[in-house]
Amino acid sequence: MSSKAQKAMAHMDRRDLSWYVDRAVQILMFVGGISAIVFIIGIFVFISKEGFSFTFGRFDIVEFFTSMNWRPTSESRETYGAFALIVGTASITGMAMLIAIPFSLGAAIYIGEFATGKTRESLKVLVELLAAIPSVVWGFIGLTIMNGLIIQLFNVPIGLNVLNAGVILGLMAAPIMTTIAEDALKAVPDRYREAAEAMGATKWQVIVKVVIPASKNGLVSAVLLGIGRAFGETMAVLMASGHSINIPGSVFDSVRALTATIAAELGETAVGSDHYGALFTLGIFLFLITFIINLTADVMVRGIRNK
Amino acid sequence: MTMFAKTEHNVRCYATEKRWKALFLLMTALLILPVLVILTLLIVRGGPAISWEFLTAFPIKGMTEGGVFPALLGTIFLVSLALVFSVPLGIAAAIYLSEYAPDNVLTRIINLAIINLAGVPSIVHALFGLGAFVLFAGFGTSILAASLTLAIMTLPVVIIATKESLQSVPHAFREACWSMGATRWQTIRRIVLPNAVSGILTGVILEVSRTAGETAPIMFTGAAFFLPFLPESVYDQTMALSLHLFVVATQVPNVPEDLPYGVALLLIGLVLTMNALSIGFRIRLRNKKKW
Q: B92, B100, B138, B147: which is closest to A35 by C-alpha?
């Protein structure tokens, strides 16, 4: 390049102060952007680090998944069998989904497809308020109102059981499922509906034959995220489930959940002890399960978008 | 006219539709009904417990009498400090995702990380806070550690709300600004952010409401069951309203019956007021929007 051209180029160069500021800000925003990744990795690293000595020491995978003896404070021999806790969490989550899936999908279809104008807006606001009630308040409601209700209605000695925690968790998971399911329904283009209606289909036929099949993936991911929410809930489960180690024979049996075990016992353990490490190992287990659930939900939603 | 008369089949189809519509309406109502019942019950049973003294006095006699002042103040401290960390970070992340991020694998991973951050159980966040802030960073069980834990947990709320409000600013606004020779940052600062600020505020208020209600993440990182004095610095522990509800409902013997109802009402009142504020703000915003 001739020196003349270089001079001309230098003249064109507009890298003034605001150009550098722009660059600096871009880097700063990028750091903010990747912070979420840093935190997710950080969560995994730090929980693994605290659980490390247990996970690679005392931890016995067969005992963990098959034994129902969770006796971390036993004098003679501590055992860390999480089977009963896993069953407890699974039974409460299952109960919650039995309630939340039909109700939230029903509500999503009503709000998304039938309701219009002001009704629709107010229903959405009410669902949002349902989602805003804190977990500990739900737990308190389970402990007091639901407990009394179940004892009276079913004539059982204790009202803190799978049914109680399941209903509470169902109500907690329902708003998020309703919102995401409604978004999935809304993502179905209107021209699909119009085409079906032009063929003489009733609104119900349009919903069953066109809208639901077209939004199937979104609805499944709504259910998955609801399961994730119910699965990871802590305070409400701790307060409403009865918190006793049990393989439930009926919905009126008390159980103990994985999350609640950590919340109830972590305060009493010494840092670095086996018990402490065992609770962090439960944490790793919870983290991995929710990670898989969220990943699957995301892949399913992306599936519809790419179509 | 017989050509347009309803056939038996038509009648049946419309009847089916009506039945399903009624069923779904019933389901929606049954889902919403509990909120109203719960609110009513809390107001009826907890209302009498709430007084000026309840809000401004310390708990006394093993937390069976007196007020909730330190818990209320503690919640305000925790939420405020959490906002200091999460709002700038969340807004930066949202600006990156909305204004800079190319459509590539990294962006996809960031979005996935945000969804996961929101989906990780609160007790796992508590374990993380304990491992990272209390022990590793050496903050001890303190307001600082608890606020950081809360900030990371509620970060997705700010990011998602901010991203949405940034993306609702029409692209033409940016293009007009760029054609005037403005840099990306000048465009964001002078055009995009001013137009999105109320949407961002809506997200921040929502985050306040979420943060105030959380219990599990602060249990082992900075909130104490009972403290006879107020915290003096961010390295002190504090009481918090949400944990206080758990404590008086489950851990303390001989609590008069309306006390936990009062605490629950205060907590839910705080959270729902914030939420209603955020919703109202959003509706007003939508009606005001000129584009």
A: B92
